Amino acid sequence: DKAAVEPHSNGLRLSNGHTSVVASKQTEYLLDRNLHKSFPVVTGGSGNYLYLLDGRTVFDATGGAAVSCIGHGNKRVIKAVSTVMNTGISYLASTFWACEVVEELCKNLIHGTDGKMARIYLTGSGSEAMEAAIKLARQVFYECNPSTPRINFIAREGSYHGNTIGALGMSGFPLRRAPYEPFLMNNVHHVSSCNPYRQRADGESDSSFVARKAAELEAKFQELGPETVIAFVAEPVVGAALGCVPAVPGYLKAMKDVCHKHGALFILDEVMSGMGRCGTLHAWQHEDVAPDLQTVGKGLGGGYQPVAAVLISSRVVNTLLNGSGQFVHGQTYQGMPVQAAAALEVQRIVQEEDLVDNVKRQGLYLEQCLRARLADHPNVGDIRGRGLFWGLEFVKDKTTKEPFDPKLAVAQRVYNTSVSTPFNMTMYPGTGSADGLKGDHVILAPAYNVTKEDIEYIAQVASDVVHQVFRKLGNL
Ligand code: PMP
């Protein structure tokens, strides 16, 4: 699958038929959070592979941050997007115009919710979807009573909900919040995450662990005044903040019950864990605990277009319809035909090729392969995840679970090693998984159409990388 690269008048020609525009100087001008770095230049992609200007082929085992759910360069999606572009519709404001492809996408999404969701609000990113969900949740109570006392949200530590001010305010992610703390909403209150590796007492059963979490949420409602709480917000499987930590069985139902007991909404952020990533179309379907509002993103458009959405239950829709019937929101780039065309085709491929089932099967095998190779490694504290969404948490001491000194940048080292020769595979790094400030993990999140052989390859390379990184660290 390695593609040879040769010069071409438009940039580069790859032996696999792709032509790419050269952008070798791009990173000198692009403002990125890694201001001091330059990045390898990618010139093309196909399936699991990214082709680099330096001639290397990299196996993409993460699809960015769990985005590329059907791999790169899918011809069907490229055609669907081109077809819409070729209609001549460059842009439609979704506040004024309807469009068939947008309608079809919404219908398709509603169909996948087992009748639990009634409407879709399309956005251009996961953060925007969270912003819309925050405002929708507040509006539910405002419609009934404009002077409603409901002004508080409860979210969780060890969570990431996006980078805009509202979504960041929800996020329990100290490293990302720190510079902007003075601007973040002061009516978001955090309870602990559901992270058995770090929080479960010795011998504690799932049910008593869950009961402890429900009691903590109940106490937070009581502290704030139950009548002041708009909603509780959680990721069913925590992504970037902790590294693929699934909720303990029974947890989501227990938390939803606390919310509903107090008339508050239960919101799930499935931007990273949803749309098939965890082996069910929606992560909540694993235990059939449908939320009142749900955000989805990455796997919706598989990276082919910037597209995300809020899925809205009939309870919420009916309240809005019985009130003003309006959602006072709207953004220029939402519900665009070209975004919808990409997302619709990605979803059709996922459905026609039964890829969610493949995620479930290959996910179980990935777990098995990772455990076989890494469970005994002295610096691999935890291997956790679901579907094709797996995290490895690294520790200095496996018995005490002591994290590494952040100055060692362990997760970044693992990433740097994995994308370099001879490994040439992506692993998505993250920090803060131990206590918000310390702790290192990496995420593996390959495309849904991986084969058994791909899984073995990913697990073997991941294992080789981890062994090499810690061998070298030991020699420092
Ligand atoms: N919620 C979750 C759970 C996420 O993982 C992310 C992105 N990593 C977001 C929200 C924000 O999405 P976006 O980057 O598309 O704004």
**Gap from first CA to last CA:** 37 Å
CATH architecture of the largest domain: 3-Layer(aba) Sandwich
Given helix and strand content, the structural type is alpha+beta
Give the overall shape, derived from the CA principal axes.
Answer: globular
Report the radius of gyration as a whole number of Å.
Answer: 22 Å
Count the strands?
Answer: 19
CATH H-tier superfamily of the largest domain:
Type I PLP-dependent aspartate aminotransferase-like (Major domain)
| Strand residues, percent | 15-25%
CATH topology of the largest domain: Aspartate Aminotransferase, domain 2
What's the overall average pLDDT, rounded?
A: 93
Biggest β-sheet, characterized? 7 strands, mixed
CATH class category name of the largest domain: Alpha Beta
Helical residues, percent: 25-40%
Instruction: Enumerate the spans where pLDDT stays under 50 for 5 or more consecutive residues.
Output: 21-25
Oligomeric status of the shown chains? single chain
Strand order of the largest sheet: 7-15-14-13-10-8-9
Any ligands, ions or cofactors bound here, and which? 4'-deoxy-4'-aminopyridoxal-5'-phosphate
Summarize the structure in words.
The chain is of the alpha+beta class. The protein is 37% helix and 18% strand. It has 16 helices and 19 strands. A 7-stranded mixed sheet has the order 7-15-14-13-10-8-9, sandwiched between helices. A 4-stranded antiparallel sheet has the order 16-17-19-18. Strand 16 and strand 17 form a beta hairpin. Helix 4 (100-111) packs parallel to helix 13 (337-352), helix 14 (355-374) runs parallel beside helix 16 (452-474) and helix 15 packs across helix 16. The longest helix has 23 residues, at 452-474. The radius of gyration is 22 Å and the shape is globular. 4'-deoxy-4'-aminopyridoxal-5'-phosphate binds at residues 65, 125-127, 130, 160-162, 235, 239-240, 269, 271-272, 297, 308. 4'-deoxy-4'-aminopyridoxal-5'-phosphate (PMP) binds next to helix 5. Belongs to the class-III pyridoxal-phosphate-dependent aminotransferase family. GO terms for molecular function: pyridoxal phosphate binding; transaminase activity.
